[in-house]
Design goal:
Blueprint (H helix, E strand, L loop, with lengths): L23 E7 L6 H16 L5 E6 L10 H5 L5 E4 L10 H4 L7 H6 L2 H11 L2 E5 L9 E4 L13 E4 L4 H6 L3 E4 L5 H6 L5 E4 L15 E4 L8 E5 H6 L2 H35 L3 E4 L2 H4 L2 H16 L1 H13 L8
């Protein structure tokens, strides 16, 4: 694990206010660079709304993946080195499959809560020393491939090596590709050097990372859905006043219900910008396109069940009952 700087190894009490006149400072660890769309539009939006609430009297300091690798961030937050984590759950599937399994759930934040799924996920993370604050969807659709060469024939990714997190393994293999586990920060150089032929990614942030300089195509249609997580160290959450806790939870819920249209518009704007920079859309064949949603969803459910069988099996059963997932027969 990456060694943390000594200044980060402060006990929880040292991060809390010395007097009631001071705002309570919380430290958020994020899996994305602060200039990325996922940080700007979600983490920083959440921070701004929380800090604007005078009732809470909270401040949040954001720290990025340059301090701790995205794949290693869950532990220091559970240990209280940081109080908040903004991440994608695929980065901590070595610990649990529950968060990653949320990517199998259709985007409907209110029904996700009403169905009991949100509470089920929250209860699980509390066993890991974490409190669930928010599960913001990253748009109404989830994924695309960024490719060096256009799609030709079927399966459309035959013979290609493609960056991905565990979320993408099943769909990449189903389309004929070979998954390569890699953080987003390594993709540019890996594509530039020919180590990989492309990357599975969400619908925002390609331009932020400059991938248009080393790749020529983005795939259509988009497929699946994906979520990020805002989690909090459970002891730190319990140490807050009821009013502060409620502000965090209310802003988390508001983020869930408001963010998908924002991210959808950003995706459309980004595709236009990428085309202006020389990239082009490339289409999966109709046969492949019809399989994408089920492939990614089946793979996500299996990933979750393999890691955390009891809870994820219960999630899947509930999601099927409430028509909140798409699975193959």
């Amino acid at each position: 694990m990456k060694t943390l700087k000594p200044a980060l190894l402060l006990p929880l009490f040292a991060l809390l206010p010395a007097t009631s006149a001071m705002a309570t400072e919380l430290r958020m660890l994020a899996s994305y660079d602060q200039t990325s769309a996922y940080s700007r539009e979600i983490a920083q939006r959440f921070i701004k709304e929380v800090e604007a609430n005078d009732t809470a009297d909270l401040s949040i300091k954001l720290t990025g993946p340059d301090v701790v690798s995205p794949f290693e961030q869950l532990q220091p937050v559970a240990a209280g080195v940081f109080q908040l984590l903004y991440t994608h759950a695929a980065y901590h599937t070595n610990t649990t499959g529950v968060g990653a399994a949320m990517d199998a759930i259709k985007v409907n934040p209110e029904q996700t809560r009403e169905s009991g799924l949100w509470d089920l996920v929250d209860e699980h993370y509390q066993t890991l020393g974490l409190k669930l604050i928010s599960i913001p969807p990253l748009g109404s659709s989830g994924f695309q491939y960024v490719l060096k060469k256009p799609i030709e024939g079927s399966p459309g990714l035959d013979g290609r090596r493609l960056r991905g997190s565990p979320t993408y393994t099943n769909v990449t293999k189903g389309m004929g590709g070979t998954p390569v586990l890699m953080s987003s920060g390594d993709v540019y150089s890996a594509m530039d050097r020919g180590v990989i032929d492309g990357a599975a990614w969400g619908l925002n942030g390609v331009k932020d990372m400059g991938w248009q300089e080393v790749a020529g195509y983005f795939s259509k249609p988009t497929f699946g859905q994906t979520y990020n997580f805002v989690l909090m160290n459970l002891n730190a959450f319990n140490s807050l006043s009821p009013e502060q806790q409620q502000v965090l939870l209310d802003q988390g819920r508001q983020l869930e219900t408001e963010i998908a249209p924002v991210m959808d518009k950003l995706a459309i704007d980004e595709w236009k910008s990428l085309e202006a920079a020389g990239m082009q859309p490339t289409e999966f064949s109709p046969e492949d396109a019809s399989r994408l949603d089920a492939l990614v969803t089946d793979g996500i459910w299996q990933l979750g069940i393999d890691k955390t069988p009891e809870t994820v099996t219960a999630m899947r059963k509930l999601a099927i009952e409430k028509n909140l997932t798409t699975v193959s027969e």
